[in-house]
């Protein structure tokens, strides 16, 4: 089991292809995870992306897009250990920081895809 372990999911009312376009931008990755070095291990298009991560953490990260109803469930996973040159003093705080970063990312994607859509209405 990894010291830093995050698993989260958010429903996004929109087609997988549009969600995939938003998460495919390396400039967004820099914004969402500015301290991590991301190396794409597998670009799965409308199914998501898997990365190896470096920097202060060594491990893997994934966004998996699972079709559901009129949208997708955006699953976010992070499994990592502190890099030897970046020891952590507070593991609980580090886990929280990474959970919050993942939730910010998923809510930003959701807001972009669902912009202008009335609550309860089908995806455009």
Compact description:
The protein is 31% helix and 38% strand. With 124 residues, the chain is α+β, with helices and mostly antiparallel strands.
Protein architecture, described:
31% of the residues lie in helices and 38% in strands. It is an alpha+beta fold and 124 residues long. It has a single domain (4-114), classed as START domain (Alpha-D-Glucose-1,6-Bisphosphate, Chain A, domain 4). The N and C termini lie far apart (40 Å). The mean pLDDT is 93.
Can you tell me the CATH architecture? 2-Layer Sandwich
Largest sheet: 5 strands, antiparallel
CATH superfamily: START domain
Spatial strand sequence of the major β-sheet = 1-5-4-3-2
Strand content: 35-45%
Q: Which fold does the CATH topology refer to?
A: Alpha-D-Glucose-1,6-Bisphosphate, Chain A, domain 4
Number of strand elements: 5
Query: Which structural class fits the helix and strand makeup?
Result: alpha+beta
What is the domain total for the residues?
Answer: 1
Determine the mean pLDDT.
93
Please, what is the oligomeric state?
Answer: single chain
- The N- and C-terminal alpha carbons lie at a distance of 40 Å
Number of helices: 3
Helices and strands, in order, run as EHHEEEEH
Radius of gyration over all CA atoms, rounded: 15 Å
């Amino acid at each position: 089991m990894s010291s830093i372990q995050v698993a989260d999911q958010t429903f996004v009312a929109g087609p997988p292809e549009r969600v995939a376009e938003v998460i495919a931008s390396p400039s967004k990755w820099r914004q969402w995870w500015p301290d991590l070095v991301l190396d794409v291990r597998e670009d799965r298009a409308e199914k998501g992306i898997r990365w190896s991560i470096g920097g202060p953490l060594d491990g893997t990260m994934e966004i998996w897009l699972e079709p559901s109803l009129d949208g997708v469930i955006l699953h976010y996973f992070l499994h990592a250990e502190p890099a030897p040159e970046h020891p952590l003093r507070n593991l609980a705080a580090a886990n929280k920081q990474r959970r919050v970063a993942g939730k910010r990312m998923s809510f930003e994607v959701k807001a972009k895809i669902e912009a202008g859509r009335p609550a309860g209405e089908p995806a455009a």
